[in-house]
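Researcher: Next entry in the queue.
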Amino acid sequence: MRKVQATEAQDIKKLLLLAGVPEKDILLENKSKNTYENAQFTRKLLTRHPELKSFILITSTFHMRRATACFEKAGIAHAIFPSDFYSNDRLFRFESFIPAEDPLSEWHNLFHEIGGYIIYKIVGYC
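Model: Structure for this entry, 126 residues:
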């Protein structure tokens, strides 16, 4: 029998618990398979907690535009907090003119998000 891995939500819950966040303060949306579903299921979850008034959407910098659009369409007003950045120092060095493979390895993220955003717009997810 195949072992089921933990979801991202379960992993983040573990991290929050390790950081000292009380379990009673963690709401877990654990059913979604994509960003659209995450926004829809989160909206349903939040209707059971009208005492909560403000929200922060934490996701990858690459993914923020699509995620924000989905959560706005779901009617969830939120602040944003990008969780990662891809940058380097901007000092001039001779090596700067030599192509490196590291930047090229991240292009798939850009293409994935541009394609995902276009598809989500076409099907009405955001």
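Model: The mean pLDDT is 88.
Researcher: Noted, moving on.
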